[in-house]
Write a structure and sequence with these properties.
The structure is a single chain. The chain is built from 20 helices and 15 strands. It has 532 residues and is α/β, with parallel strands linked by helices. Helix 19 packs antiparallel against helix 20. It is elongated. The C terminus is likely disordered. It comes from Aceticella autotrophica.
Length: 532
């Protein structure tokens, strides 16, 4: 049956009813088949008759339905139409590729699945004459790819919070660096907590939880996660996920339950999904330059604090911080901070360093070849031997970078003082120590090494104060022995006596000058010599 437009339908009806033209004449003028014209005129007359003779209509009839039938747009009756190219054989091949994709997802090969265009190309290569649109429609029908209905959830006080990661790029001392922002959001009140970490690993993941629980002074009963590797060790079967050891340890220690949202279903933890974007935009859209990650974290904490103190009309005009106060009595009790360190037994190499993630950290040279118990945090490295802490470093990230402390090499430098000027240890030492060396100890390396040992005893500030005092007494000859005397306060009396003697000498000079003024000019030369 020929399909006509709503305008054609209007022209047919008006020509027939209003102008009195015959169906044959209308067909000649419009070029529309007489059967089509007859169909629409007949249907119009029937519906119009029903509308006029309303009293004869069944009481259940709806006048509005009649009107809708009269003015509806013409359409095909496609009930008996069949798809010519999308045959059963083609549909079976499409189902085969979809099953293949499902198997790849279970094997962790989700990035190697065939997209719709790939399935279409595969069918074309197999010789099937079919269009891309038909393939897409068939895939959608098979997968029942329709809009998902969401169910609004109601949350109890202290029951659920959500966790997620977000990437942030900031300038630290002028250099662009990428950080991972851990974000927690309470489901009941939208209380937000965020903290930056160098990377997305187990120690950072655990430290994020420790910081959050310390901030809220309690623990939520349930934490919701996505399927990131730091939380999910592997997929088991169709829907089960095996948690990582790091997550299990946190759960056991703090006694909270956890659950994972379904794959590609970020709406199942929608609070934190929105919070990551929201906090990142509020915090770093206006400011992205900092001197250190610590400064950036302090700034981020203040931004979250401001957001948490903002009242929300949808929450009874209460702020997230106020709702958290209501939740506090429902939270699990606060515990001492969980030790979020990754522990390892590492051997000190010939350079007296241990290696953590390709980066070197020095230990005292007496421990070369020994096994060092190492606790690895997101921001620091602690080294122990026989339960005694022997070294601490700020953690560095990169490839084959070195963190060297000069005091770890004192024994070696005593034996090889000539190695000091070009050593990595001196180059990475405190800039104040480097300045002292270059000003006072060049070519006196052994004595400088003695000073380094003494710094470890009294501290850097006392050394600097002692050097300032020595500059007033003898700015040319500054030695380690003199620095030690100053630091041990044996020189105070000497300085006082020196000051007293100088005062006596000055008074004596004044007396001689006055006496000389009473003498004849012949004694002038003698007076000058006496003063000198």
């Amino acid at each position: 049956m020929e399909l006509i437009s709503l305008k054609d339908k209007q022209e047919i009806i008006l020509s027939y009813i209003r102008d009195g033209k015959s169906q044959r004449q209308i067909s000649r003028e419009t070029g529309i088949d007489r059967k089509v014209i007859r169909k629409y005129i007949k249907k119009y007359e029937e519906k119009r008759g029903d509308l006029i003779n309303e009293g004869k209509i069944d009481g259940n009839a709806d006048i509005q339905e009649i009107i809708d039938d009269i003015v509806e747009k013409p359409k095909y009756n496609s009930e008996n139409r069949h798809k010519r190219k999308l045959t059963e054989k083609v549909i079976n091949r499409i189902k085969f590729y979809l099953r293949e994709n499902e198997q790849k997802r279970y094997l962790g090969q989700s990035k190697q699945q065939k997209k719709k265009i790939d399935i279409y190309n595969a069918l074309r290569e197999e010789g099937y004459d079919i269009g891309y649109t038909s393939v897409c429609q068939a895939i959608n029908e098979i997968l029942n790819d329709q809009k998902e209905a969401y169910i609004k959830a109601e949350y109890q006080l202290g029951d659920v919070c959500e966790f997620d990661w977000g990437e942030v790029k900031l300038f630290i001392k002028g250099k662009l660096k990428t950080f991972q922002m851990a974000v927690f959001t309470s489901a009941k009140g939208n209380y937000r907590f965020a903290k930056l970490f160098p990377k997305q690993d187990t120690s950072c993941f655990q430290e994020a939880h420790v910081s959050f629980f310390e901030d809220i002074k309690g623990v939520y009963h349930t934490v919701v996660y996505d399927n990131a590797k730091v939380m999910v060790k592997k997929f088991v079967g169709r829907n089960e996920k095996e948690p990582t050891e790091g997550l299990l340890k946190l759960s056991i220690y703090y006694c909270f339950k956890f659950r994972f949202c379904n794959t590609y279903r970020g709406n199942e933890k929608g609070h934190v999904e929105r919070s990551v974007e929201f906090v990142r935009r509020k915090a770093f859209s206006n400011k992205d330059c900092f001197d250190s990650m610590e400064e950036a974290n302090n700034y981020l904490y203040e931004v979250c604090k401001k957001l948490n103190n903002t009242k929300n009309p949808l929450k009874g005009n209460k702020s997230p911080a106020e709702i958290l106060e209501e939740e506090r009595s429902y939270l699990l009790p606060q515990l001492p901070p969980f030790d979020a360190a990754r522990c390892a037994d590492l051997r000190a190499d010939k350079y007296s360093t241990i290696v953590v993630d390709s980066c070197h950290y020095s230990v005292p040279d007496a421990y070369v070849g020994k096994i060092i118990f190492t606790k690895i945090y997101s921001h620091k490295i602690l080294c122990y031997y026989d339960n005694v802490k022997i070294a601490e470093h700020e953690r560095i990230y990169g490839f084959n970078e070195w963190s060297i402390k000069i005091e770890h090499y004192l024994n070696t430098l005593k034996k090889k003082p000539g190695a000091l000027p070009s050593s990595t240890a001196l180059n990475q030492a405190d800039p104040r120590l480097q300045q002292i060396y270059h000003i006072y100890y060049t070519t006196r390396e052994k004595e400088f090494i003695d000073l380094l040992q003494y710094v470890g005893i009294v501290g850097m500030q006392k050394i600097l104060d002692a050097i300032d005092k020595l500059r007033k007494i003898d700015p040319i000859e500054i030695t380690t022995d003199k620095i030690k005397i100053i630091c041990e306060r044996k020189v105070d009396k000497y300085i006082e006596n020196t000051k007293t003697n100088n005062e006596i000498e000055d008074k004596s000079k004044d007396m001689l000058l006055k006496f000389g003024s009473l003498m004849p000019k012949e004694a002038e030369n003698f007076k000058e010599e006496a003063v000198i």
